[in-house]
Write a structure and sequence with these properties.
Number of helices of chain A: 5
Structural class of chain B: alpha/beta
CATH class of chain A: Mainly Alpha
CATH superfamily of chain A: AhpD-like
Helix content of chain B: 25-40%
Distance between the termini of chain B: 34 Å
Bound molecules: iron/sulfur cluster
Structural class of chain A: mainly alpha
Number of strands of chain A: 0
CATH topology of chain A: AhpD-like
Oligomer: heterodimer
Strand order of the largest sheet of chain B: 6-5-4-3-2-1-7-8
Largest interface: A-B, 11 and 18 residues
Helix content of chain A: 55-70%
Distance between the termini of chain A: 57 Å
Radius of gyration of chain A: 19 Å
Strand content of chain B: 5-15%
CATH architecture of chain B: Alpha-Beta Barrel
Chain lengths: ~110, ~350
């Protein structure tokens, strides 16, 4: 084991996860590849969604990969930042909307 | 993120101005210790070694390394301080070759080829040689750089020249970062001028194509989708039209190599290139149908090899002995920079090399 939990070089080894479970690994990569193909959404739009989700998931590998992928697809840094704000807004919104639970509970418990 | 430099590597006495130093880097490190396979090894795996030319289609002539710009990624290390310029004597030898060549395309490049004082005289003569496709690689800003260049669009039109121009992005910020302050606005004005005389308009025979190359240590995205983005943005924002977009990979040589090393992206970039290696692209790499001629008349497999000082491996190495049949019987000289031509959909001066 390396001294770090995360090593950028490990991203290159992603494909190796098929080694210990070939069928499932391959199924995953087939699915993954298909998802990112140009469809009703452009590959560029998908890349931006992936970038935003990478941040909400806080996955360093995904952030590395989809920042580069977005650049490759000609996405500007302003567009990337806005996409991340969309992710952040949903994250904070999702936190704050639960405040209604707290309020309900307080209202129920308090005289 | 590096600051835009105002001078060539040569002028700055940077060690990467030396072709040998560049080759040392490309042959050493991760390729020497076997971490990554050399390009030769890689193409051996699919029985494509040695790389051999097919039918000659393109004569690419470099009229000199002088340029009005000093783009950060430039593989030529061009700039205003470069004085290497093709003489009229060498041009005359080129004209003889152009008259007799089997190639259907003539491709003039630089630097800024228009800065060669004999540029117009040369184009005038060359356009009479009956070449099917006559390309001039124009960096756009040259048209605006000085009054004496303002009429280039009309000049190109008169000689039915196919204009191929670089445009790194459809936004100002990204363009100026790569090519220098003000380049975007000047390029837009130049494109408008070209459109005004008929270049790039739908159905027009006056061909105007744009070249896109990434603004950093990443590979170009899909050429077709990039073309769509460029077209809709340039049309919506500036009412500009063009024909095709060529997406070109930056090869790890010269100023781009310097950038990769200085920004500590070199190894990662080489990994990317090797990982994106596409054996299907090998058979169509540019050197298989092109001969590149330098400002001083030496012959190379491609413009990149020219910058690395790797002359053709043939009995004929100079334009004064030019002989197409002898040249066609040669092995192409390769090194690790070649991975730039075979990544993904492949890359050449005409964009991707696979369909
Ligand atoms: S990339 Fe082209 S325009 Fe830029 S410095 Fe090099 S030759 Fe000149
Ligand atoms: S760099 Fe030149 S020699 Fe190498 S593959 Fe590309 S075109 Fe051929």
């Amino acid at each position: 084991m390396a001294n770090n939990y995360y090593d950028p070089k490990d991203l290159r080894k992603f494909g190796e996860i098929t080694q210990w479970s070939e069928e499932l690994g391959n199924k995953f990569f087939d699915y993954y590849g298909k998802v990112f193909e140009e469809g009703a959404l452009t590959a560029r739009e998908k890349s931006l969604i992936a970038l935003a989700v990478s941040h909400t998931e806080q996955c360093p590998y995904c952030i590395d990969a989809y920042t580069k992928d977005s650049l490759e697809r000609g996405v500007t840094k302003e567009q990337m930042m806005e996409a991340i704000h969309v992710g952040a807004a949903i994250k904070s919104g999702a936190t704050l909307v639960h405040a209604t639970m707290m309020m309900n509970k307080v209202n129920k418990l308090e005289m | 993120m590096a600051k835009l430099k105002q001078q060539s590597l040569r002028k700055r006495d940077n060690e990467l101005a030396s072709a040998n130093r560049q080759l040392e880097i490309l042959n050493g490190g991760i390729f020497e210790n076997g971490e990554l396979p050399t390009f030769a090894k890689k193409i051996m795996q699919t029985n494509q070694f040695p790389l051999r030319p097919k039918k000659l289609e393109i004569l690419q002539i470099n009229l000199g390394y002088m340029c009005n710009q000093v783009c950060e990624h430039c593989h030529v290390d061009a700039g205003p301080d470069r004085k290497e310029i093709m003489t009229w004597e060498t041009m005359q030898m080129c004209l003889e070759v152009i008259k007799n060549t089997g190639a259907h395309t003539l491709d003039l490049t630089g630097g800024a080829p228009e800065m060669n004082p004999n540029f117009r005289r040369f184009v005038d003569k060359a356009s009479q040689a009956g070449i099917k496709d006559f390309i001039v690689r124009s960096n756009l800003t040259i048209i605006r750089a000085n009054k004496k260049y303002h009429d280039l669009p009309q000049f190109f039109k008169k000689h039915n020249v196919h204009v191929v121009s670089s445009m790194p992005h459809w936004t100002r910020g990204k363009t100026d970062k790569q090519r220098g302050e003000g380049v975007f606005d000047m390029s837009i004005t130049a494109l408008k001028q070209l459109n005004a005389v008929g270049y790039g308009m739908p159905g027009s025979n006056l061909k105007l194509d744009l070249v896109y190359n990434p603004n950093g240590a990443y590979l170009p995205g899909d050429q077709t989708s990039m073309e769509k983005e460029f077209k809709s943005a340039l049309l919506a924002d500036f009412n500009i039209q063009f024909h095709s977009l060529f997406a070109i990979t930056n090869l790890p040589i010269s100023r781009f190599l310097d950038y990769l090393i200085a920004s500590e992206n070199y190894e990662e970039y080489m990994y990317q290139l090797v990982e994106a290696y596409n054996p299907g692209a090998v058979k169509n790499v540019m050197c298989t149908n092109t001969i590149s001629i330098s400002w001083d008349g030496w012959l190379y497999d491609c413009d990149f090899n020219q910058m690395l000082g790797l002359k053709v491996a043939s009995k004929v190495t100079h334009i004064n002995q030019y002989n197409e049949s002898i040249l066609s019987d040669r092995d192409i000289v390769i090194s690790q920079h070649c991975y730039g031509c075979t990544a993904g959909a492949g890359s050449s001066c005409q964009g991707v090399v696979t369909t």
